[in-house]
């Protein structure tokens, strides 16, 4: 159970560190660049430690392509937290399980059960509740922007998760170490190029915060895998998702007094129910 608790706290800290960066008006891309510097270092260290040097050109190409998606999704996550709030952004991120489940049905012939169908319906209800929660806040254009970022976050993380399934279905597990390193390192290179092209001033405190962000980003994956090796997935995934949503919502309220209106609270509750049905 300790690994599951650590996975929850690491995953929760991602959203909270991103929120802290937005509060401090830190440059998001520089923050994310620091994050991927740390992630690249740790993933390379794991390869050397486990001596898993197997790779193919296809895996390198796939990983390099996904690096763009990883970097862009992280930027969207930060923006969604800033505009829609930490709690709703976290629910949207966790609700992204909808995408790999749907694509697994469409492309891998997996059959949905009755719980998944109800989960799909509740996911759609949650998206509508997102709209109602944001409806009375800010200008019309501002509300549309918040909603677009929440939907983009859901889709982006969903595609990231589904890409992992594509890897598992088409490539040997011995190439996973190189695959993960390629994703992180290419994301680091892409964000570094963006910073250079846009001539964004280097801010040491922002980059250092990004380096810190990379630690829970990497550890969350490894703690989750450790938890899955000791507990059934049917226990791990629901508890992890609910734990992350609750901790981020409570922490955002205590630290930044981030308020959630009635529709937002209902969206969180319905979203948790949808995640439970889709994950079980």
Description:
The chain is mostly helical and 280 residues long. Helices cover 84% and strands 0% of the residues. The protein has eleven helices and no strands. The protein is globular. It starts with a helix and ends with a helix. The model has no long low-confidence stretch (mean pLDDT 86).
> What would the average pLDDT be, to the nearest integer?
86
Low-pLDDT segments: none
Topology as a string of helices (H) and strands (E): HHHHHHHHHHH
Helix count, DSSP H or I runs of 4 or more residues? 11
Rg over CA atoms, rounded to whole Å, is: 18 Å
Determine the fraction of residues in helical runs and give it as a percent range. over 70%
Mass-distribution shape:
globular
Strand content: under 5%
First-residue to last-residue Cα separation: 18 Å
Structural class by SSE content: mainly alpha
**Count of DSSP strands:** 0
The largest pleated sheet is described as: none
Helix and strand arrangement:
Layout: H1 2-23, H2 28-50, H3 57-84, H4 86-94, H5 98-107, H6 114-135, H7 140-170, H8 176-197, H9 204-230, H10 233-256, H11 262-279
Helix pairs in contact: 1-3, 1-9, 1-10, 2-3, 2-8, 2-9, 3-4, 3-7, 3-8, 4-7, 4-10, 4-11, 5-7, 6-7, 6-11, 10-11
Supply database-style keywords.
280 residues; mainly alpha; 11 helices; 84% helix
In brief, what are we looking at here?
This protein has 280 residues and is mainly α. The chain contains eleven helices and no strands.
């Amino acid at each position: 159970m300790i690994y599951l608790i650590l996975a929850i706290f690491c995953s929760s800290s991602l959203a909270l560190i991103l929120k802290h960066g937005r509060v401090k008006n830190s440059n998001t891309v520089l923050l994310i660049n620091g994050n991927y510097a740390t992630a690249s270092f740790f993933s390379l260290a794991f390869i050397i430690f486990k001596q898993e040097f197997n790779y193919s050109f296809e895996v390198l190409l796939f990983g390099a392509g996904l690096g763009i998606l990883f970097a862009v999704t992280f930027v969207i996550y930060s923006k969604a937290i800033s505009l829609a709030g930490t709690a709703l952004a976290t629910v949207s991120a966790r609700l992204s399980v909808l995408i790999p489940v749907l694509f697994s049905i469409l492309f891998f012939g997996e059959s949905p059960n009755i719980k998944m169908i109800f989960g799909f319906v509740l996911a759609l209800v949650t998206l509508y509740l997102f709209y109602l929660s944001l409806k009375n806040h800010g200008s019309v254009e501002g509300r549309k922007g918040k909603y677009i970022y929440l939907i983009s976050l859901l889709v982006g993380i969903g595609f990231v998760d589904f890409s992992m399934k594509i890897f598992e279905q088409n490539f040997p597990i011995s190439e996973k170490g190189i695959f993960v390193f390629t994703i992180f390192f290419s994301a680091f290179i892409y964000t570094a190029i963006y910073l250079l092209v846009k001539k964004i001033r280097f801010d040491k405190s922002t980059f250092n915060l990004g380096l810190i962000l990379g630690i829970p980003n990497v550890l969350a994956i490894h703690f989750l895998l450790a938890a899955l090796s000791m507990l059934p997935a049917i226990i791990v995934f629901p508890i992890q998702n609910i734990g992350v949503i609750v901790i981020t919502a409570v922490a955002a309220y205590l630290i930044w007094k981030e308020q959630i209106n009635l529709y937002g609270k209902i969206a969180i509750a319905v979203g948790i129910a949808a995640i439970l049905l889709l994950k079980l």
